[in-house]
Amino acid sequence: MPTAAAISISGLYKTYDNGFEALKSIDLEIRKGEIFALLGPNGAGKTTLIGTVCGLVQPSGGTILADGHNVITEFRAARYKIGLVPQELTTENFESVWATVSFSRGLFGRSPNPAYIEQLLKDLSLWDKKDNKLMTLSGGMKRRVLIAKALSHEPDILFLDEPTAGVDVELRRDMWQVVRRLKEKGVTVILTTHYIDEAEEMADRVGVINKGEIVLVEEKDELMRKLGRKQLLLQLQDKLEEIPDTLKERGLELASDGYELIFTYDAQAERTGIAGLLEDLNAAGIRFKDLKTAQSSLEEIFVNLVREQQ
Ligand SMILES: Nc1ncnc2c1ncn2[C@@H]1O[C@H](COP(=O)(O)OP(=O)(O)OP(=O)(O)O)[C@@H](O)[C@H]1O
Ligand SMILES: [Mg+2]
Are 214 and 54 within 8 A, CB to CB? Predict the structure, then answer.
């Protein structure tokens, strides 16, 4: 029976043998066909989370479905749907590119399909290296081979664990292109990254994980819309006990023990309301000694979320 979610995770826990709680009650749905970016600092639990979905890490509790198949009780059916590009570069050194990728396909019980493998290698700009032994490839090319391996059995869901860590700008752009093409074909892509701009560029939705907990899941566009909001911060000369009635309409916030007024406005709007605000402040006899504007970026939101939890 087709289900709406590509991946459905509920109440997932992982405590490692040494007692470390790497995942704490994770609930997460990945929609079919979306690109989902999972952000989080080192050690947040990204690789562990992916490992539990792909059957590399035994969950301590909870349920994970991949395209409706339970990853524990229906492991083969679930795993068949999934391609995984691991974070660590490990490749059999003496095999050729062609042999490695073809072999991976066979592991999933798929019958050989040289035309598919050929197209895959061409899409990943690996075709002219198809007879090269892996040990003769550069790091970036090895990473492409890992992607080709992960896609060799035509999975519907692809996990990319830090696909662009330590690769050059050009290869990053190529990777993004590859991911976009996969999305066009209907493949669901979940990628982890430390690069905020990568999430901004690629993702339909963004999730943030910190210390084993999902602390935010949001549409990227919604996040970006919030980013369109700017703040004007006015440092006051004298302490203000409360916002005067004449200024109540403007949605001001009083901060720093009454020494700062914060005005939030839409930077994209034709009229920001700043001029009127300054006139009203003047009329109310409120003097300020300094003013500055602030704009939150995805990076800031991320850093704040992570800091709040410390
Ligand atoms: N086999 C293990 N035994 C004990 N603890 C582990 C094991 N594997 C991972 N951990 C711990 O679990 C936490 C999460 O690790 P994980 O690799 O999932 O983080 P991550 O978010 O992928 O980090 P990074 O961004 O560095 O790749 C870390 O504190 C790590 O030390
Ligand atoms: Mg990791």
Answer: no
- Domain residues for the domain of 16 are 1-81+155-162+184-227
Ligand 2 geometric centre to CA of 280 (Å): 52
pTM recorded for the entire structure: 0.80
Distance (Å, rounded) from C-alpha 264 to C-alpha 247? Answer: 14
CA torsion sign for 278, 279, 283, 287 is: positive
Q: Is 12 exposed, middle or buried (0-12, 13-18, 19+ CB in 10 A)?
A: buried
Cα–Cα distance, 79 to 99 (Å, whole number): 22
Residues 16 and 66 in one domain: yes
Q: Which ligand is nearest to the CA of 46?
A: 1
What confidence tens digit (pLDDT) does each residue in 93-113 have? 789 999 999 999 999 989 999
Q: Which residues line ligand 1 (CB under 6 A)?
A: 16, 18, 20, 22, 40, 42-48, 87
